[in-house]
Amino acid sequence: MPGAAPTPPPLWAAYFAYPAYRKKNDKVNSYQERLQGCMTYSMNGKAPPLGSPELVAFAAYSYWLGMGALMDKYGVPGPVPELDDEELLKGGKGDDFPLPDAIVRALPVDERGKLPGRGYPLVEKPTGGYSPQRGETVYRQHCQLCHGADGQGYASAGIPTLPPLWGPDSFNWGAGMHRVNTAAYFIHENMPLGKSIQLTPQQAWDVAAYINSRERPQDPRFDGSVEKLRQRYHQHTGYYGQSVDGGPVLGAKAYPNFPPQQDSGD
Amino acid sequence: MRIPLLLTFCVFLSPTSSLAADLPLEAGVCAGCHGEQGQGINNLGPRLAGLPAQYLERQVNLFKGGSRQNVTMHAMAMGIGGEQLQKVANYFSAQPVQPVAPVRRGEQTAYTDPAAKLVYQGDWSRTLPACATCHGPATIGVGQIPRLAGQQADYLKNQLVAWQQGKRAGDPDNTMGNIAGKLSGAEIDALSSYLANLQ
Questions:
Q1: Residue A74 neighbours by CB distance under 10 Å
Q2: Min CA distance, A106 vs chain B (Å)?
Q3: Between the CA of residue A99 and those of A15, A71, A83, A111, B59, what are the distances in Å?
Q4: Given an 8 Å threshold on Cβ–Cβ distance, is B178 in contact with A159?
Q5: For the segment B22-74, what is each residue's pLDDT rounded down to a tens digit?
Q6: What is the pLDDT of residues A87-130, one digit of tens each?
Q7: What are the structural domains, with CATH classification, of chain B?
Q8: Region A121-266: CATH code
Q9: What is the ipTM, given to two decimal places?
């Protein structure tokens, strides 16, 4: 079922991890706000408004996947109980979230955010650090067949098919994936798709650094100063506001947010 | 004796058939088994039309080196290389294929046909990506990744079985060897026929 696989962080594990505080916007986020984040940052798009039918549908699907799995696991019979939209949009981590007794006993609120698949398995940073330059070699060997020599992915018959990893159509500087550690975890666990080979932690960190040391769409929280934004939101393992190998400061020539919808050719 | 006979047949057929006007001389020998427009001939040779030129070139080189095994193709591949091979690959790559209506992700979410489900959704309980993820919408091909839609069912089946048995190699990171190894015989049959009928 789409969204159900345990390693590319599943919707259902996230459902039971919200509401929760996020550093990203410095407040407690409901599940629907977290969903908006996927679209604002990772998809570099425009999120449907709070309470919209689209967010209700995402939340319903996430809840149904997660609740179904928990009911199976804890032997609760019957169909997944229905929730009203308002409850559904908050997420499953609230104190008063309606759950069958067997599940509440097994999974108190504090445990719910730790369902298998929540977040990525950590891959320790190599002791010798990481290098975009070495990462380029990894990229040429293992990634470019699908993501393109220029990292721009591919479209087929006008339909975007294999995703770009940097440049105007990629995730933006506010997406979690722009962080070298997050991308390294994701890549190590999920790439190349189908896992015909396993990259080493060093390869995963290096290639994550390569991909993330190139220009991409602006962080939507940008308000005119790359340096201010770097200080406020980018004190982590990313390249925003930095120059790599004497190149221009990343973020200074970032691509626009919310680009008009268009299908690009090959 | 079957293979030498087949080889003779291919070589014999090409000079006597009516060649397409723009068929390069070097491609004549291919046309015997693959058709003048690379449309493929059942039980003889798969369709080459519309496949990426670099992919075709690479396959010929894999036959040469033995990563792909086929007595006829090994012999044929040994006779061509360099610019000649590029010319032939470009010719077949440029030949038209029947358009297939591309399918967008999410247009359909529930599948009753298990082959269709594998093609569009894969099976993540076995870390099996969907065919369409890399081979494109309705598997019409993407970049250097070949089209599957409308390819001969026998050919598709033989390739998946060859990968399973380690008799075909040379794809980047053994991607297809890994995928074929996770498929059952029944799934290979069903997938091959499903993809062949996508036209």
A1: 16
A2: 25
A3: 13, 10, 10, 14, 56
A4: no
A5: 899 999 999 999 999 999 999 999 999 999 999 999 999 999 999 999 999 99
A6: 999 999 988 899 999 999 988 888 888 777 777 788 999 999 99
A7: 2-94 (1.10.760.10), 114-196 (1.10.760.10)
A8: 1.10.760.10
A9: 0.86
